[in-house]
Amino acid sequence: MSSPDTVNTDPVLIDRSLCKACGICIAFCPKKVLEADESGIAVVAHPEECIKCRMCELRCPDFAVMVRSEGDE
Amino acid sequence: MNENLAEYFRGDHLPHIWCPGCGNGIVTAAIVRAIKELGWEKDDTVFVSGIGCSSRAPGYLDFNTLHTTHGRALVFATGIKVARPDLNVVVITGDGDASAIGGNHLIHAARRNIDITTICFNNNIYGMTGGQYSPLSPTHSLASTAPYGNTDRTFDLCRLVEAAGAAYVSRGTTYHVVPLTNLIRDGLNKRGFSFIEAVTACPVYFGRRNKMRTAVDMLNWQKEAAVPVSRAKDMDPGELAGKIVIGNFVDLDIPEYTESYERLLKEHASDRSGS
Lengths: 73, 275
Fold this sequence. Notes:
Structural class of chain B: alpha/beta
CATH class of chain B: Alpha Beta
CATH topology of the domain at 21-67 in chain A: Alpha-Beta Plaits
Structural class of chain A: alpha+beta
CATH architecture of the domain at 21-67 in chain A: 2-Layer Sandwich
Strand order of the largest sheet of chain B: 2-1-3-4-6-5-8-7
Helix content of chain A: 10-25%
Largest sheet of chain B: 8 strands, mixed
CATH superfamily of chain B: Thiamin diphosphate (ThDP)-binding fold, Pyr/PP domains
Number of domains of chain B: 1
Strand content of chain A: 15-25%
Mean pLDDT of chain A: 91
Strand content of chain B: 15-25%
Shape of chain B: globular
Largest sheet of chain A: 2 strands, antiparallel
Low-confidence stretches of chain B: none
Helix content of chain B: 25-40%
CATH architecture of chain B: 3-Layer(aba) Sandwich
Number of helices of chain B: 12
Distance between the termini of chain A: 15 Å
Order of helices and strands of chain A: EHEEHE
Strand order of the largest sheet of chain A: 1-4
Radius of gyration of chain B: 19 Å
Mean pLDDT of chain B: 97
Distance between the termini of chain B: 58 Å
Radius of gyration of chain A: 11 Å
Number of strands of chain B: 8
Oligomer: heterodimer
Low-confidence stretches of chain A: none
CATH topology of chain B: Rossmann fold
């Protein structure tokens, strides 16, 4: 999550308090937008590649991933 | 958490107890998205579950919820629906809860065609108790109680429920999450007994013993094993061995139990008042 004094413009928001590092969102992203950090938690590595297909959000078992809607950024 | 789901969840109960990579959260979110699409009110909707990993789901859902005894969710749900036919009643159950412990109740709920939607989270194993094989464990698969492989034939629960008389029967997988959500939505919307088998992954107790160590391996298995019902019709049993047939199997408009019961009460209203 972004700190209060920075604006997070990522197309995908990941709740680190809920992510259990299963890797589903990373593996099945068709554009490889997401990568694992050192603890396996998903981070947005290539935001410009996101096509907003929402497959990461829909397949997240932990309700931790959300793709911003058009116009939210 | 995901803001698209938050209003339907008891956020203070999260993170949930399910293991990393467990597909139960994918199915639970799919149910919530289907309800959101239908515009159902939380106060008009009741979730009932039995015992097992999947049956923990209603604990996280901010609806009217009832966590009951093993295999008996449909019994409690039947009571709720008969007492309050105006409510939307949804049962969440697992493969063991629905087919073994509660198999008898499943048959008779389908036979009566009572307006309850049952969503069976099929993870092919008893996960909560340590990976014993269930009636839906594939033949030859390994389990803690089948170290040399399961010799039982696998139950096709959709065919059972169809034969018992349900109005709506479908199967989907967590890999195919968009079609799964649509199948759940159509089942919720159906007047009568609806049954949706959601094939979900248990990487810890099923996958690890069966050469699918990770959640990603298990979703790839669902992807590769799935056959749409339209294509399965032209395949013989040999070709279908080990496959997961997905899609809608039954969608009928047939008399619903609580409506038939209400009609009976009206027909005999004078008999009852005269007593």
